[in-house]
Specification:
- Helix content is 42%, strand content 18%.
- The chain has helices spanning 2-34, 43-60, 65-77, 82-85, 101-111, 132-136, 163-173, 193-201, 232-239, 255-263, 299-306; strands at 87-88, 95-96, 115-119, 126-131, 155-157, 177-181, 187-192, 216-218, 224-227, 272-275, 279-286, 291-298.
- The strands form three sheets. Strands 8-9-12-11-10 form a five-stranded antiparallel β-sheet. A four-stranded mixed β-sheet has the order 1-7-6-5. Strands 2-3-4 form a three-stranded mixed β-sheet.
- Strand 8 and strand 9 form a beta hairpin.
- Helix 1 (2-34) packs across helix 8 (193-201).
- The radius of gyration is 23 Å and the shape is globular.
Length: 307
């Protein structure tokens, strides 16, 4: 009995630590924000923070790697723009204003989100945000639920807005989500307050997060099976390749971007795109907007297989 109680206590502590992790790190960022350390326009604060780090290392020894990463992120935080941290449009999960409560519940269950954008016809016409708490209230009386009556305000921001400014705006308005819109009013992406905090403290995992699968794998024949979202730099490093001219390296971050650049459009499933560096990209999964999965092969490897 004592052992069961002990196990129960340990599990409770683990859940508590996990759920408190985000709040503790968020509080740290907000305190630094209040003191002006995260303002990109104040060089003095940045220098003061550097001096504090050096003083700490002189008195108490070198910082551990996690602390160094946190402080490096702090120093660069003021230079970040919203488009540096946003979730791209293709990965936004949202519900339609005409959706039934059952469909909305299924979406929340599948994604384990607490909030979702709500749109009328498409993502370029967002009406507001729905919170899971407003859905739960109608669990036993679903016929009385009307989605439009429970929408929260949607915050719209440009991709060029600085991350510290957005964090201040979200704190002032007490909003946890913002839609990123381009100059024509189209939706480019989405950003949450957790995304902003993670740009400093790194990924924050909770009890609902699942282990992410790697975005690319090297197969037994030497080819690479990759998600379109796989980092170009990571894939290049793993096989010793250079897919892009130097002046494009900072513009294209993913392998889906590489093949779209090579083809001059979004290639479709079954297409094979050749690269003059001795590689070819076979598209295995795609839709009209993006490449989802592909296989990368060395052309010399293909010739060897034929021989």
């Amino acid at each position: 009995m004592k052992e069961n109680n002990l196990n129960k206590k340990n599990n409770t502590n683990t859940d508590s630590n996990s759920s408190n992790s985000f709040q503790l790190k968020k509080t740290l960022v907000e305190r630094l924000l209040n003191f002006g350390f995260l303002k990109n326009e104040d060089i003095t604060n940045s220098n003061n923070l550097k001096n504090l780090i050096e003083q700490h290392e002189e008195e108490q020894g070198e910082l551990d790697e996690e602390s160094k990463l946190l402080l490096r992120n702090l120093l660069s935080f003021g230079d970040l723009k919203v488009n540096d941290v946003m979730i791209p449009r293709a990965d936004i999960v949202a519900v339609c204003l005409s959706s039934s409560i059952d469909k909305i519940i299924k979406a929340f269950q599948k994604e384990s989100h607490s909030r979702m954008p709500v749109y009328k016809d498409n993502l370029d016409d967002v009406s507001g945000v729905i919170h899971i708490k407003d859905i739960v209230k109608f669990w036993d009386r679903r016929k009385a639920f009307k989605l439009s009556s429970h929408l929260k305000e949607a915050l719209f921001v440009p991709p060029s807005m600085s991350v510290p400014d957005l964090l201040l705006t979200m704190r002032t308005k007490r909003l946890h989500m913002a839609l990123v819109v381009d100059e024509y009013g189209g939706t480019d992406g989405l950003v949450t307050i957790e995304d902003l905090v993670e740009s400093i403290v790194g990924d924050i995992e909770d009890e609902h997060d699942e282990d992410e699968k790697p975005l690319f794998n090297i197969l037994s024949d030497g080819s690479i099976e990759a998600s379109g979202r796989a980092s170009t730099a990571d894939v290049e490093k793993s096989i010793g390749a250079d897919f892009l001219p130097e002046h494009h390296d900072e513009e294209i971050d993913t392998v889906a971007g590489v093949v779209a650049s090579l083809a001059g459009r979004v290639p479709q499933r079954g297409e094979v795109i050749s690269h003059n560096g001795g590689f070819e990209f076979e598209i295995t999964q795609a839709d009209a907007r993006r490449v989802k999965k592909l296989i990368i092969r060395k052309i010399t490897q293909i010739k060897d297989e034929r021989d």
